[in-house]
Amino acid sequence: MPAASPVASILIVAYQSGPDLGRCLEALDRQTRRDFEVILVDNASTDGAVEAIPHYDWLTLVRAPENVGFAAGNNLAARSARGRYLVALNPDAFAEPGWLDALIAAAERHPDAASVASVQVSHEDPDRLDGMGDPYAPWGAAWRGGKGGLAVPVAESEVFGPCAAAALYRRDAFETAGGFCERFFCYYEDVDLALRLRRAGWRSVITPWAIVRHVGSGSTSSDFVLRHATRNRVWTYLRGMPALAGLVFAPVMAGLALAGVLAGVLRGGAGARARALLEAVRAFPETMRERAAVSQTAQARALGAMTWSPLRFLRRGVDARPIADLPDRLPRDDWDSPAVVAVIVSHEPDTRLDDVLDAALAQCARVVLVDNASSEEVRRHLRARANAASTLTLIENAENRGLAGAQNQGLEIARSAGVDWILLLDDDSVPAPDMVARLLAGWRSMADRKQVGLLSPRLSDAEGTLKPYLLSSGTGWDLRRGRMVPGAVVRDGVFAIASGSLIRRDVLDVVGPMAGPFFIDYVDIEFSLRLRRAGFEIVGIGDAVLIHRLGEFHETEVLGRKVALNTHSAWRRRLIHRNRVRVWRRFVAEAPAWVAWDVAAALYDVWKAVIYETDKAAKLRAIFGGFMEGWRG
User: Are strands 502-504 and 452-460 parallel, antiparallel or unpaired?
Assistant: First the structure.
């Protein structure tokens, strides 16, 4: 049934959308949040896509007499909308089930934000970004942040503005700003609106769980795109750029525009760009009248939110900035009887998995076991375990989705269950019978626990190779070993291994999922450093114990002495070194001391492969290949 008073109105403007439109609506029908309506504006399409869609009781169809464009189409839909939030969505953007819920939750955490951006990944390759917010440079250029780059999550952050392919707008802010400028038709209308909202004193954020898979436009002619993008870029600059900055950077903007025309002589499109610039010049009087109206309501300069780095502009990079008071925006910091869900990932496990399951089932309200394509014999055993325990949910993957991908499957289930804490476990890491209780007791003993996002136990192993300490750092420039002994509470952890990590669900909501493109290795380190960047703390609790097994051990003899080594195959070596370089590149500014420490660890790994290990050539090739792949992206 349609919501009597929908919280959100999703606005879709369709024109010759083909089968994408049906898939877009199917994705909306799978949303976990149901208090929405959809206003679909058909811009006089002739491809039959609108006629082919099935009936949805939450869908209202508005037919435009002609193709009025994306900007006017959204404004038309907004006038029919009843929701408190207006959510623009392209017909070729397919929302993940928790997308709308994540957008609305972020809007409620940030009442000072007029808009919330989605994470857009490529529909063809979800490990690659289609865009993560729209940065805007003071010389008038905007771009989809990180388009084509690796889809590694960012925590909830501030961005200049959202791409309107999938964006939430606060209705009152949208209407006060006048909506999209209709003479833009399409392209840059979202950037223009973001600039006006910024100048009106609003902020914009991006939230990590609001994910859409975006196909991207491939049906319009290049001249059409060049004309509207070139013309509207100039109009956006003239309408909204603060006066002094506009004068200072006008020569840069003009130079880039002319360079685009000259480049078009070689690549094609020079005529379309030149005609677009002439069109922008001819409309100069009207644009200046609009500028005067924008300036009358301006309360802020908006320059601080712009991207000033020429390198980031040239690389079309993401510009997502940490929100200083993010921990304070989470509503709760205590629970009388916290609900804990464990997420376990398995791949060809041995008999220790039964011990892990027994311990988790005894300590958690629910256990989600995600199996990554184990053998049929293993799966029969896992199905029997799931059938015997009502609180055990088994997810069987047909292929190995990696540790990160499988963890994200489990995290989605745990988050949708509305739990308070989520416990991550490997299939060979056995919690002590009171591990969860001791982690929570340590957390409750802290007066400033609202800043704590992750609790880590003391690790122990049968071989005695795991050292009972947690690396910690207060400033990023210091690095110390905090001893994890009974009674100890180690603050300011740099990272915690995933297995045994107890994560607050509300913190996970704003820090985001695991980095799927990493597959395995350094997934937990990247997540931990992202959590720290967002302003949360990792704390080690010495009273809580996890029996953990790290890698594979073998003995070798050097100068007559037997040495026990933790080792990995060449394949794993490539992933380890690829991902560690990716982490260095992302977090060296926040954790320089740890990065220096990890560089030394990487050099030791090379030395170990040369001196101690078998298959030296294969492992060295893997290490070098991983390093090169990590530097490339």
Answer: antiparallel
Helix (H) or strand (E) holding 222: helix 222-240
Residues 146, 319: contact at Cβ < 8 Å?
no
The CA distance from 330 to 327, in Å, is 6
- Give the separation between CA 138 and CA 111, rounded to whole angstroms: 26
Please give the C-alpha separations between residue 483 and each of 436, 459, 464, 467, 541, in angstroms, as whole numbers. Answer: 20, 11, 15, 9, 10
Residue 618 · residue 502 · CB < 8 Å: no
Distances (CA, A) of 87 to 171, 219, 476, 592: 9, 24, 39, 40
Residue 381 has pLDDT above 70, yes or no: yes
CB 328 within 8 A of CB 354: no
For tokens 């300011």, the residue is 492
Is there a contact between 199 and 301 (Cβ–Cβ < 8 Å)?
yes
Q: Give the integer Cα–Cα distance in Å for 436 and 367.
A: 13
Q: Could you tell me what percent of the chain has a pLDDT over 70? A: 95
Q: How confident is the model at residue 300 (pLDDT cuts 50, 70, 90)?
A: confident
Distance CA 137, CA 139 (A): 5
Rounded to whole angstroms, the Cα distance separating 174 from 28 reads: 23
Provide the whole-model pTM.
Answer: 0.93
Token pair, residue 396, equals: 């069987």
Half-sphere exposure for 587 (CA within 13 Å, toward CB): 29
Is 559 a residue whose pLDDT tops 60?
no
Note the residue count of the chain: 633
**Torsion angle (degrees, nearest 10) of CA 28, 29, 35, 38:** 60
Place of tokens 């000259």: 262
- Segment 542-556 shows an average pLDDT of 74
At residue 380, the 3 state secondary structure works out as helix
Q: Residue 333 pLDDT more than 70?
A: no
Phi-psi region of 269 (alpha: psi -120 to 50; beta: other; left: phi over 0): left
What is the SS3 assignment for 185? Answer: coil
pLDDT in tens, 107-123: 999 999 999 999 999 99
Whether the per-residue pLDDT at 355 is higher than 70: the answer is yes
What ranges in 297-351 are assigned the alpha helix state H? 310-315
Name the DSSP class of 125: -
Contacts of 150 (CB under 8 A, 6+ apart): 127, 128, 129, 517, 582, 633
For residue 537, give the amino acid letter: E
Mean pLDDT (the chain, rounded): 93
CA distances from 479 to 389, 458, 585 (A): 44, 19, 19
Residue 218 has pLDDT above 60, yes or no: no
**DSSP at 84:** S
**71 contacts 185 by C-beta, under 8 angstroms:** yes
